[in-house]
Amino acid sequence: MSTDWKEEVSKCSKCGKCHTVCPVFLETGDESMVSRGRISLAEALRDKQIVYTDKLRDYVYSCKKCMRCRTVCPSGVDYEVIISAMLRGVAENMGVPLLPRIIFRYILPRRILFDTMLKISSKIQRFIPMKKRGQMRHLPLLFMGKRWIPTLAKKSALKKLRETKKLKNPRMRVGLFTGCLINYIYVDIAEAVVDVLNRMNIEVVVPQGQLCCGTPSSSMGDYKSSKKLADLNREVFESHKLDAIVTACATCTKTIKMDYLRTLGPSWQPMSDKIYDISEFIEKYCGDEYEANPVKEKVTYHDPCHLLWVRGISDEPRNVLKKSSNYVEMDQAGACCGGGGIFTIIHYDLTLKMLERKVASIERSGANTVATNCPGCVMQIADGFAGKNSKVKTTHSIQILQKALVNGGIDKGDEK
Amino acid sequence: MKLFGKTKTEDSKHQRVLRELIKAVGREKVLSAIEDRICYSYDGTKQKALPDIVVRPGGTSDVSNTLKIANKYEIPIYARGAGTGLTGGAVPLMGGIVFDLKSMNRIIEICPEDFVATVEPGVVTKDLQDEIAKFDLFYPPDPSSAAFSTIGGNVAECAGGITGLKYGVTRDYILALEIVLPDGSVINTGRKTLRSVTGYDLTRLFIGSEGTLGVFTKITVKLIPKPKKIETLAAYFSDRDDAIDAADLIIDNNILPRTLEFMDKMTINAVRSYTGTDIGEDVKALLLIDIDGTEESISHEMPVVENACKENKAFSTKVAETAKEREAIWAARRSISPALYNIAPHKINEDICVPRSKIKEILQKVDQINEHQTIYIANFGHIGDGNIHVNIMYNDDPGQAELAESIVNKVMREVVAVEGTISGEHGIGNKKSQFMELEISPKELAIMKRFKSFFDPKGIMNPGKMFLS
Amino acid sequence: MEQNPHNKIQAKVFEEFCDSIGRENVFDNIEERVCYSFDATKEKSIPDLVVRPHSTEHVSKIISIANQHSIPICPRGAGTGLSGGSVPIKGGIALDLKNMNRIVELNARDLTVTVEPGVVTKDLQDEAAKHRLFYPPEPGSAGFLTIGGNVAECTGGMTGMKYGVTRDYVLALEIVLPDGSVINTGSKTLRSVVGYDLTRFFVGSEGTLGVFTEITLKLLPLPAKIGTVMAYFKDIDSALNATDSILIKNHLYPRSLEFVDKTCVDTVRGSAGKGIPEEAEALLLIDVDGNEKNAANDISRIDALCSENSALKTSIAKTDDERDALWNVRKSVSTSLFKIASMKFNNDFCVPRSKVRKVLKSVYELSKTYSIQVAAFGHIGEGHIHLNVIHDEGKEMDLSVHKLVSQILKEVVSIGETITSEHGVGDAKAEFVELELAPHEIEIMKDLKKMFDPKGIMNPGKIFV
After folding, report:
1. Which band of pLDDT confidence, cut at 50, 70 and 90, is reported for residue C2?
2. Residue ranges of the domains in chain A?
């Protein structure tokens, strides 16, 4: 285990400023669930005052890893280094639970197995009574805990977009990294990315060999598995000649652009430099070149934590939306929606509280649609509105742009 | 007298206490796992001491019942808000029980017509300010930690803040307190009216008592109308004394600015290299001034303030025209802390206060004490009241920590010599106990100790703080 | 020593006092003692000696001797208190501090001033004004009341609305304790949080814990201009509506907001109150301060708001003289009430603003029930009311008045609030303290009193029964 986490830990001045932005602390007021507290636990580990226990693991998992604390820390502590080290420590000392371990090590690196596993689960669900609300199904199974998730798509995005639509004289050739949620559930987001870029004369390849970015494994400290996935993804993407790689998932972008630098080393830098969030890419390379007929919907934007707090990107998605819709800003757009990963399974009650606040902000904005740049946030926020039988639609910003480019024509995504 | 001992008798006492506490307040409110205790072992001074138990009271009766048990077994009690104090106030030096009062965080009521509000101690100051702003009301005490420190903590330390010159400090805004005394009994001091003088002022006695006399479970505060507008000015000087003179001239012109902040050369240098702001190399001192009131009052006062700066050789002044500009000007002040940490990893943050006429003298003395410049000292703060934060930054090189401590020692003596005070707003805690004798005579100290033993004969409330035992 | 059958002090002790501070400063003749037997409550009790110290050392010596022989001490400034605070009800020594009346040091740059206790508040105001500074707490009796008395009672005054009260301005004290020892509390800086707040604890202790021999106060810059308007209303409701409009709806922040009810208006009309309309049953007197322009703007806004709330007439002061005349109306209310009857019981309670109407209604109803005249006036902006009960002399009348006052105070406390907001408890209200303070709290205060004054010599009989 690297020692740079110890350096970071000693930087903490215990001022408590992280209290002001931590979404979990906002709900609990519990010092063990805020950066400063977790850092003091890291110190205790460093000083051998404590060992790894269930309780410690729970506190480590209670971190949303939104990195918002890092943006306000006066002492410049790189909290990500610390929490990653703690997650790794948990995995190394307590092991990763069996089912996740199997999935991370044996299923995620093998696309066919992954496809198969999901197909089987969705078939089994039919025999188990489940609740439905709107587009959401309550999946009472195993590791998904009490989550409500949307139906799996009939055909995955990778399969649907296997054939690259060739353009006559494309000005660029980019690869699309779909990520799991988009691949298996929100296929229309992937289709919207391809469609939009094609309309801007950019050819899009969806490399078939791509795998999960590795976030689920690293979020449980299983860095061995996530390294394996990184290596495999690297092979796949480096084998294509691409001017850039885009993703529509803020978490995937963060992982493959930034975390892979740590996992794969500085040799990944040239690739990392070419990786963009889709809005970021459009603003950078397509700028003012497209004519969009703004859709009638009143749209507001939710900042995914990994895009805003980790990468500092907030203007680009908004610019795209301002050109393609009747845009309104919501209050506290940067507040975490509570969605994403292990947290929602282990701390479902907190997730719901954070979601409540987000839904309230959206309602206050008067928007009838909320757009965001992360399918995890889409799923979470859609769940919030489904629970209220609300008419507010949740979507990805690229889908709004697609609609606007199609001149407000019927979007197949409406039927979902 | 720690509970977490290894002997059989100590351990069984620990078990008994735990059982009684759980019975009294409920299992979910009593934490004894080491992972939890670690998280409540420190405050903003980086000191650490492990408590034996953490209790999260739900209300006054929980606090009272816990104190009864603590009193019975003579267990130390440490009240804690956000745990962000700068003098060690919330650090459980002798183990025992930490009260996590963040669990009592309701705004009980706001009465806009009466200009009062009542809150539980764990309410974050900024949350109260935001709530009452909806009624166009204002709670002035605004410590820089307002976004995360609690009202209870503010009252225990009698916090100040940037608005002190014009609006006063915490003790001027507390009307009534509900307090649980160390024996578990509950008293109410003060009244919820804007004026009251019935009997002795116990309210003021408890304000600033740093958790050594009792625990606040309800706090009634006075509110005032929220000023309609705030305007900001930054003035840049090439000489520290000019800035101080400018501050004097502003007050001489019968204006009390909402804030009157000062930053010296070392502070500015740190901020400049950290944020890369466009504060020129020639700026050796700056004043950051907020004026509040109505459009008309500001339009009268701001030019006077600006002139006062210019008359004292401010080579540049900037009045913020937009909210964004205002933000940018204040960003410099807010980035002082991170900027200083960029220079060295350890900080001693003193908050001396001297009579206004002695500000120049004390700053010169600080310069003299650090004449070999082996350590980075930045001075900034509420120059309007004479409250200066002397920040001493040091690293892990051998001898640095000791040098920093000796500088503090010398500075404190100089401060007392000019009839200043060793703490303007941070309080004593355990960090400044050693300096109390410089300022407080033995007789006075004896009286304070008598108050302490009057209310807390067993010495269980925040032991190890304020007085050197 | 003159032989006097009522003087309980032994000749030996008398000699000690004379030796310690000089014979010329110790008075045992009855004429002198009678002059120091009362305050503004008209209560009377003749002290055994009147002693006039000139310095801290004197005070310390006197108190040491008194402590040794368990002789009560009653400190006194101007003797104009309204709760019996400086009446030596247990005899003993009347400690006349009027000779300790130096302004020791005014530091304009520091915004502080240090004074001896006998300095008259108005004299301090005048001195401060020379430096364009001011000491905000301005009780009606500022012209003759002493700072020492202000601090002992924690007086409020006309400017409390905007500027707070005495305790907000006391930075440091030099105090002679009941055993004769001298301590210094607080700090001469504008902020200090070192140890317990002994300074503020002593403020308002009504002379029961010690004697102030030096007081350091905070000063503020003197506002350039004060705007004043008086508004006359046909009934109390309109006046109170105007108050709500000014404070709540329009969030204005006056320096003073005073009100006067029908009984008071009737007594001042014709004398101090020339030009008060016949139909006026209530009036408001409002001050704002600031610079020339905004004081004028604020006052005309307030003027407009009063008119909007059915004011019969408003008068804006255009000159200092006009301002003084308007304030004179308010300041003469207290004494004018004696036109109704020769005795007056002064209450000064404070209720939450939102409860003012309710309290006044109860009070007027009780007054009717008891057929005893009451008059209400005061700093209504803060929910503060001076409620005077005016009556003729007579034992039976005294009993009725006492019953009425108890009822009123019970009402007040049940509506939530405090029986004295600036006059102090003294002995006049000692019996009512229980209405407001819980037994446990009173016990604590008594024990603290004992801690400082085990022999019970400092102003005995005050605050606690």
Report:
1. very low
2. 4-94, 290-415
C273 and C287 inside one domain: yes
Taking CA atoms, what residue in B is nearest to A52?
B35
Full domain range(s) for residue C320: 225-334
Structural domain count of chain C:
3
Cross-chain residue pair B207–C197, CB shorter than 8 Å: yes
Q: Would you say residue C389 lies in a domain?
A: yes
Closest by Cα among C457, C349, C465, C459 to C65: C457
User: pLDDT tens for residues A246-260?
Assistant: 999 999 999 999 999
User: Does C401 lie in the same domain as C356?
Assistant: yes
Q: Which residues in C54-98 belong to E strands, given as ranges?
A: 73-76, 93-96
Say which DSSP state A135 is in: T
pLDDT average, residue stretch B134-140: 96
For CA atoms C110, B308, B350, B430, the dihedral sign is: positive
Query: Are the beta carbons of B413 and B70 closer than 8 angstroms?
Result: no
Above pLDDT 90, what percent of chain B?
Answer: 84
DSSP A152-206: PPSS-HHHHT-SPPP-SS-SEEEEEE--HHHHHT-HHHHHHHHHHHHHTTEEEE-
Local confidence band at A133 (pLDDT 50, 70, 90 cut-offs): low
Q: What local confidence, expressed as pLDDT, does residue A140 receive?
A: 44
* Cα–Cα distance, B257 to B424 (Å, whole number): 19
Residue A23 distance to chain B (closest CA, Å): 13
CATH architecture assignment, domain A4-94 = Orthogonal Bundle (1.10)
Query: Chain A closest CA to B46's CA: distance in Å?
Result: 6
* Interface membership of A46 toward B (CB under 8 Å): no
Tell me what pLDDT residue C66 has: 94
Residue among B34, B124, B341 whose CB faces A74 most closely: B341
Beta carbons of B119 and B111 less than 8 angstroms apart: no
Over residues B241-262, the mean pLDDT reads 95
d(CA B195, CA B178): 17
The count of C-alpha atoms lying within 13 angstroms of the C-alpha of C105, restricted to the half-sphere facing its C-beta, is 10
Residue B162 CA to residue B426 CA, distance in Å, equals: 13
C-alpha span between B123 and A360 (Å, rounded)? 22
Residues 6+ apart with CB under 8 A from B341: A11, A13, A74, A75, A76, B347, B393
Report the CATH number that the domain containing residue C247 is assigned in CATH.
3.30.70.2190
How would residue A163 be classed by pLDDT, with cut points 50, 70 and 90? very high
Crossing angle of helices A35-46 and A4-11, in 10° steps, is: 130
Name the β-bridge partners of C134. C220
Q: Return the residue matching tokens 């307030």.
A: C302
* B351 and B389 Cβ atoms separated by less than 8 Å: yes
Pairs across A and B, CB distance < 8 A: 82
Asked if chain C contacts chain A via 3 or more Cβ pairs within 8 Å, the reply is: no
Q: Give pLDDT tens digits for A245-295.
A: 999 999 999 999 999 999 999 999 999 999 999 999 999 998 877 778 899
- At the topology level of CATH, where does A290-415 sit? Rossmann fold (3.40.50)
Torsion angle of C-alpha atoms A241, A246, A252, A256, degrees rounded to 10: 40
Q: In a mutagenesis test of the C interface, which of B196, B388, B414 is the best target, namely the one with the most C β-carbons within 10 Å?
A: B196
Per-residue pLDDT, A125: 67
Question: For the purposes of burial, counting CB atoms within 10 Å of the CB of B237, is it exposed (0-12), middle (13-18) or buried (19 or more)?
Answer: buried
Which residue does chain A place closest to B80, by CA atoms? A31
**Residue B9 confidence (pLDDT):** 75
Q: What is the CATH number of the domain that holds C411?
A: 3.30.70.2740
Domains of chain B (ranges plus CATH)?
8-103 (3.30.43.10), 107-225 (3.30.465.10), 229-337 (3.30.70.2190)
Mean pLDDT across the stretch A175-191? Answer: 95
Nearest Cα residue to A306 out of A190, A379, A215:
A215
